[in-house]
Amino acid sequence: MADPKGFLTTDREVARTRPVAERVRDWNEVYVPGSLLPVISKQAGRCMDCGIPFCHNGCPLGNLIPEWNDYAYREDWRAASERLHATNNFPEFTGRLCPAPCESACVLGINQPAVTIKNVEVTIIDKAWEAGDVTPQPPERLSGKTVAVIGSGPAGLAAAQQLTRAGHTVAVYERADRIGGLLRYGIPEFKMEKRHINRRIEQMRAEGTKFRTEVEIGRDIDAAKLRKRYDAVVIAAGATTSRDLPVPGRELKGIHFAMEYLPMANKVQEGDLTVAPITAEGKHVVVIGGGDTGADCVGTAHRQGAASVTQLEIMPRPGEERNANQPWPTFPMLYKVTSAHEETTVLARLRAEANPVEGPSSPKAGEEGRVYSVSTTHFEGDEDGNVQWLHLIEVEFKGGKLEQKPGTERRIPAQLVTLAMGFTGTDRANGLVDQFGLELDERGNIARDADYATNVPGVFVAGDAGRGQSLIVWAIAEGRSAARGVDRFLTGASTLPAPIRPTDRALSV
């Protein structure tokens, strides 16, 4: 145990963020560089090294959290990195992007603020990179077997790295122009700077993994021909079909899926574009969808100079404490203020101070720009077909059904609308599913057995393409588990870890 009294003597302290007025002028990560290091050892010392560490169950990767907390407390960063990498290929991704179900399952969290597990994790891996402790791990011998991985998101990269280290020759196919999938183009730079992806890719190249960009399986290469070329195939193409909003006015210009809007902003940061073709500059922006993708749209709009940003959510506002029906150690639905929502509050206040005579279309000072329990009825445009207004109505759940509340209709200004309502399944339009002849489950995901194998011999599926829309930790866990299934298929046995089964789900009630 790190510090037997740490949880009694040390209060929870998280990473400090840069001032809003400063950070919305750039695209760097929102946190103050180096702000965690002076406090993180004491924070790791709050870990109680529980007899039954429920944080292991909260995390599908089965991260050895008490062990690397102990090493971090003692500032043995190399040992901490070794324990961290024992279960997680990419802790710098999860340490920045994961919503930390491990913290929800922390035993200390029953009656105190949980250990800052996520902050400890990202500090360990950043220190490891800084010290040169993250090095390529090429296989000692090659198996002579070849594997194609379709998709370079967290599931695909995890599967590829595991299989490469097992001695197989692996090629990763990515339809975009750069490796990373949604990590590259779906996650804004202010949440994770892309240098973190780049150096992992270089490590994987040094280990022997091959990468093929701008190749879409199903369109550029027939899926059946790919299967004949390789001994095994792993489909990690994600669940990229966005949920649409079929209401009157949807055809107006200025209404886009989040995954049409966010990649353009990231391409500007990559240097591919000078100005994003879809921009919020000077516009009243409405984001439909209250999840993390919606928050990413909010933060992106702020940095592009939006006149105002409003985020709509059809569900009621969550509480700030656990509900009785979401007991510890489940992952609760709680009200949270992300960095993007904090920015909305501060920017609204600054606008109000600069213009005391507040116009009817401006957000009120101090508001976070979020509106709960509302549903969009239709859009209204100008004579040129550009969206100008969004009409909404308040809703409530009665008897398990969603009902509109008469007399609550209103409209809000909307010159740019992003749809961030989640995803419905893997892409069917490119022909990948049909060309392979894959079976789907009742939810439209690619069906697989206990070894992540599809109905087509030698073809496996990992990540959101098989599980449905999920978290980054589940994607990495699936990639690692699918790699074991592939390794067994190719060699008859495997020593690779498989942290989860395809049927496993998050701790819930």
UniProtKB/TrEMBL annotation:
GO MF annotations in UniProt: glutamate synthase (NADH) activity; glutamate synthase (NADPH) activity; iron-sulfur cluster binding; metal ion binding; oxidoreductase activity, acting on the CH-NH2 group of donors, NAD or NADP as acceptor
The enzyme's E.C. designation: 1.4.1.13, 1.4.1.14
Protein name: Glutamate synthase (NADPH/NADH) small chain
GO biological process: glutamate biosynthetic process
Name of the top EC class for this enzyme: oxidoreductase
TM annotation in the entry: none
Keywords: Amino-acid biosynthesis, Glutamate biosynthesis, Iron, Iron-sulfur, Metal-binding, Oxidoreductase
Tagged with keyword Metal-binding: yes
Pfam families for this protein: Fer4_20 (PF14691), Pyr_redox_2 (PF07992)
Organism listed in the record: Streptomyces olivoverticillatus
InterPro entries according to UniProt: 4Fe4S_Fe-S-bd, DPD_II, FAD/NAD-bd_sf, FAD/NAD-binding_dom, Glut_synth_ssu1, Glutamate_Synthase, Helical_ferredxn
Annotated pathway: Amino-acid biosynthesis
Segments forming domain 4Fe-4S ferredoxin-type: 38-69
SUPFAM superfamilies: alpha-helical ferredoxin (SSF46548), Nucleotide-binding domain (SSF51971)
